[in-house]
Each structure stands twice: as structure tokens, then as C-alpha cells.
Write a structure and sequence with these properties.
alpha/beta; four-stranded parallel β-sheet; three-stranded parallel β-sheet; 9 helices
Length: 231
């Protein structure tokens, strides 16, 4: 095979993983995203430029608060979205909101590719990696909805967790309620202030998990002000 990556001999074919023929191919990750209209910066799960590889989105349409609460009436729509992505050939499926965790088990049962619907799926790993004398902070778009039931869906519980609600920040309003613009710099500064105050109150925090898929653009700034690993 030449350095350009062309198939030049029959033997080259067997160096590639083959999938059933489709009208298109090459999407590594399928992403289920709620239909919310607001600016999505690079780094946001719902911004395709975030990734150095092809991703494929599937839209679901319901009020975001229903997802926060784990409303069972939206389950079938989420499962249908996952199956659609699988049929398009994605190799794994994720969700563009941490509260898709409510449906992690149901979606994993419904498809035959790996499913990581929520950033909360990382909690068992983080708890293992961080000293058991340390706590894990979760910055959440709806802190009141980080309950035992949703944590159980991702193999975790409330032990050692400190949940900080950021959904009520004025700078976050445009994201939560779907508006056409927001002040990115003010939101970054506000999140950093929240983290600094949180660490003063809870000095035993050893890691920070960003529940909300809108927060990764601010992960670097949060890491800088905290000095902690940010997931």
C-alpha cells in the first residue's frame, strides 16, 4: 500500500475493517443531540469541529427539562435515535447532555455498539483514580437532578460527590433556555469564580467532572484556576 493510503493490491483490502455497505461511511462517533438553538463553540459536544474525526448527529426534539428529570415518555425517541445512528455505521454512540444518563442502560441494550450517553459514565473511573479520601465535584446544568437513580444508571452513587448547580448562573441562561447569543467571556469568568468558591468550601475535592456538554470549552480555564484534573 502506498503512503497515500490507496488500495493497490488485493492483500491491502484485508488490512481494513469492513462494514456492511452503506450510501456513506467513516463516521466514528454518533451523537444524540437535543434540538436547542444557541451558539455552540468549538469544544462543545454539539459542535462538529470539536473532533479530529468524522461524527454524525441525530436530533431529538423535546424540552430539555424532560431530559433532566428522566421523563420515561422520551425514552423511545432516544432509543430510535441510537438505532438510526447504528444503522448509519457509527462505531459508538454518545449523548450531548449529561442527563442522557437516565437512558444509558436502555440504549445500551437496544444497540450493538458501545454506548456512553453521559459524561457521568466516567464517575466509576474517576472514583477509582482519585484517592478515596478525596471528593469529586460535578458542575451540573441542573444540580437538583443529580440523584441516586440517575447515578445508578452509570454504575455510581452519591458517595464522595459534591454537586454544584451552574444552571442558575445568569451567564448560563442563554444555553439552558436556547437563545441566539451569550457572552462567552463572562460565562468563563463566572464558572471559574464558582470553582474557586467551591474549593474554598470543599478543600477535599480532588477532581472535577463537567456534567454539561456545553462546559468542555471552559475545561482549560477551570483546570488552571483549580489545579485539579478536569473530566
Amino acid at each position: 500500500m502506498s503512503w497515500q493510503g490507496r488500495l493497490e493490491t488485493e492483500s491491502d483490502l484485508y488490512r481494513y475493517h469492513t462494514t456492511p455497505p452503506r450510501y456513506t461511511a467513516g463516521f466514528a462517533i454518533g451523537i444524540i443531540a437535543v434540538e436547542l438553538v444557541y451558539p455552540k463553540l468549538p469544544g462543545n459536544v454539539a459542535n462538529a469541529t470539536t473532533y479530529p474525526f468524522p461524527v454524525l448527529y441525530q436530533k431529538v426534539s423535546f424540552e430539555i427539562e424532560r431530559l433532566f428529570a428522566g421523563d420515561v415518555s422520551i425514552r423511545d425517541e432516544i432509543i430510535a435515535a441510537a438505532r438510526k445512528l447504528e444503522s448509519e455505521g457509527v462505531r459508538a454512540i454518545v449523548g450531548a447532555c449529561g442527563y442522557f444518563a437516565h437512558f444509558q442502560k436502555e440504549v445500551a441494550r437496544a444497540v450493538n455498539v458501545p454506548v456512553f450517553l453521559s459524561s457521568l459514565c466516567q464517575l466509576p473511573m474517576i472514583k477509582t483514580a482519585v484517592s478515596d479520601q478525596k471528593k469529586i465535584a460535578i458542575l451540573a446544568a441542573s444540580g437538583a437532578d443529580i440523584k441516586e437513580a440517575v447515578l445508578e444508571k452509570v454504575g455510581s452513587n452519591q458517595d464522595r460527590l459534591v454537586v454544584e448547580n451552574i444552571g442558575d448562573l445568569p451567564e448560563f441562561h442563554a444555553i439552558r433556555y436556547g437563545e441566539t447569543g451569550f457572552d462567552n467571556e463572562k460565562l468563563k469568568d463566572s464558572l471559574c469564580l464558582v470553582v474557586e468558591n467551591l474549593l474554598r468550601r470543599e478543600p477535599q475535592i480532588g477532581a472535577i467532572l463537567l456534567e454539561c456538554s456545553d462546559l468542555p470549552p471552559y475545561a482549560k480555564a477551570i483546570q488552571q484556576v483549580s489545579g485539579l484534573p478536569v473530566f
